[in-house]
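User: Let's play a game. I give you a shape written as tokens, and you guess the letters that built it. Ready? Here's round one.
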């Protein structure tokens, strides 16, 4: 893992502040658990969820919005 200060800066840089609800995702929901661990165990966030099945599920529903590129 990177130093705590770098992890905090990286997550806050994308809007994952401790006072916000954060939903982490990846291709299938497994890799996102590392982000959830960092946010909760190392950075002290209390409102973090993992989108189980993540993009694999989301991308199979054509009614859901998605941007690429």
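Assistant: Ready! My guess for every position:
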């Amino acid at each position: 893992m990177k130093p705590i200060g770098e992890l905090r800066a990286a997550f806050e840089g994308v809007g994952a502040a401790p006072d916000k609800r954060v939903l982490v995702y990846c291709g299938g929901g497994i890799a996102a658990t590392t982000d959830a661990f960092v946010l909760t165990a190392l950075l002290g966030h209390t409102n973090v969820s993992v989108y189980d099945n993540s993009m694999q599920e989301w991308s199979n529903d054509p009614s859901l919005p998605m941007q690429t590129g």
